[in-house]
Predict the structure.
Amino acid sequence: MNKFLYRRGGAEGYLLDLAELQRIGGNEVAYFGMTHPDNDSPLRYAEHFPSYVELEPPPRGLRPRLAAAGRMLWSPASRRGLARVIADFAPDVIHLHNIYHQLSPSVLAAARAAGVPCVLTLHDYKLACPSYQMLDRGMVCDACVGGGPLHAARRRCKDGSASASTLLAVESWIHRQLRAYGPVGVFVSPSRFLADVMRRAGVYPDRMRVINHFVDTSAIAVKPAPGGGVLFAGRISPEKGVDVLVEAVAAVPHGTTVDVAGDGPALPAVRALADRVAPGRVRFHGRLDKHRLQALIRSSAVVAVPSRWHENQPMAVLEAFASGVPVVGTDLGGLPELISPGVDGEVVPAGDPAALGAALGKLVADPDRAYEMGRAARSKIDSQFTPELHLARLRDAYRAAAAPDLAGVHR
C-alpha cells in the first residue's frame, strides 16, 4: 500500500521492485493506493481507490482546502475502499509504505477490523516530524522528536507558513492522541539512524526493526575500467545540496565534469549558479530512465550525495555501489552507515563545498584508487544488500506482525 503507485521516487521504486521479487518468489501481490493518472496499469482494485487529490500545492478555495485537510486527518473513502479489497483479496499481511495525507491512517482501522496484520516501512521522518524532513527553513532540526509535534506550529517549519505548519502539527498530534498507528505490528526502518529517531520520539520502539533496502544486481553491470567524472543523481531540491556540489566544482581538477541527472524545484536556481561559478563544467541531463542512468553511473569515477538533511537510506548510494562506483556523502542521517571512509567512499561535513570538492578531487585525480574503492562497494552490496537476504528479513517481520502476542494490535 502506498499513496502513489508509479515510480515517483525512491519509496515507490522500492515498493514496485519488492512486489516483483515477491511475485517471482511465488507470492500473490495486490496494490492499494490513491487514484492517480500516472499510476501503473492495469491495477486489479483501482475502482476501490480513493479519489485523486493534489496537496503540493494545496487546492485553491476554502472548501477544497477544508476537504483536503479533513482527508489528511481521516479518510472514510480510503477505509471503505480498503475494506472492500480485503474482503475480496483476503491478504495474509498488509505491507504499508507512504500512506500519510492522501490515504491517512484510516486504512489501518480497516485492517484492524478485518484482523489483518500490518507492517509499515518508514521512508521518512513523518511519524516523528510533522513536516517529514527534520528541517526548519533549510536547517537541521529535531525539536519535534523530543518535544512533540506542536513545535512545528510554533516554529512555522513548513515553508515558513503558519497555516501549513499548524495543520501538519495538529494532524500529527491528533493521530498520536488516537494512537492511529497502533494497528501496525512491525515498523521497518531501513537505517539505524531513522530507527533511533523514532525511538526517541516514542514511536512504538518495541515494534521497530532495522532492515536494509536491497539491490538486485542481476541486471546491473559493473564499471568496466577506471576513469570518469562526478555524478549527482536524484531530486534537485534544496535539501539535496546540489548547489553545494556546484560550488565544490572549483576544488575539483580543471576539466573534470559534473553530471547532474534529475529534476526538481531547485533546478533553475542550480542552473543559474552553475553558469555563474562553473561555466561549462556542469551538464544537466534531466530525468533519465533506469538503463540510461545506470550507464551514466558506470561512466563516472565517483557519485556525490551532498545532502544537507538526514537522508534515510538513499538508493542513489546503493545503486552506485552496485555499479562499482564509490560515493562521497555527507555526515547526516543514514549516510555514514553506508559508506566506509577510505574503503568504498568518503564522508564529509554537510554544507562544506571545500571539503566536498577536496574529497571528490582526490578520487577523480586517482582513477585507479577510485576504481578499487568501487570494487569494494560492489562487494558490500553482494554480501549485505541482496534480495534474498531482504526477503528473508521481511518474512520474519511479517511473521512477527501476525504473532499471537500482537493479536490485540490487529483485531
Remarks:
- The CA atoms of residues 182 and 409 lie 6 Å apart.
